[in-house]
Amino acid sequence: MQRTISEISYTSKEEILAKYAKALSHPVRIRILTFLENQTCCFTGQLTDEIPMAQSTISQHLKELKEAGLIQGDVMPPRVKYCVNQKAWLEAKKIFSDFFEK
């Protein structure tokens, strides 16, 4: 009997690893994180200067990273200030390191 994905239970570590992997699955998101890691924080406009894409496209990628918990955004009308969520970033680094060291 074949099981469907929804019938399989995963460890919390597997689910967290998959969540971070999904968030990192696009080169623009990698570039955003690399840029943010080297900054204290930045506004969306700075990202569009760094990455030549439409603000709406950058915003969609920021949303994915934020939903995964890798970045945080503080609304400062009319702009949003983004920073790496250091706690989640360290967790992601450790989980990926543990995964690849197996």
Detailed description of the structure:
With 102 residues, this protein is α+β, with helices and mostly antiparallel strands. The protein is built from 5 helices and 3 strands, in the order H-H-E-H-H-E-E-H. The chain has helices at 12-23, 27-37, 44-50, 55-67, 86-101, and strands at 42-43, 71-76, 79-84. The chain has a 3-stranded antiparallel beta sheet with strand order 1-3-2. Helix 1 crosses helix 5 (86-101). The model has no long low-confidence stretch (mean pLDDT 91).
Topology of this protein?
Blueprint: H1 12-23, H2 27-37, E1 42-43, H3 44-50, H4 55-67, E2 71-76, E3 79-84, H5 86-101
Antiparallel strand pairs: 1-3, 2-3
Helix pairs in contact: 1-5
Main sheet: which strands, in order across?
1-3-2
- Please work out how many helical segments DSSP would assign: 5
Q: Supply Rg.
A: 16 Å
Would you tell me the overall average pLDDT? 91
Fraction of helical residues:
55-70%
Gist of the model:
With 102 residues, the chain is an alpha+beta fold. Helices cover 58% and strands 14% of the residues.
Give descriptors for this structure.
alpha+beta; 5 helices; elongated; 3 strands; 58% helix; 102 residues; three-stranded antiparallel sheet
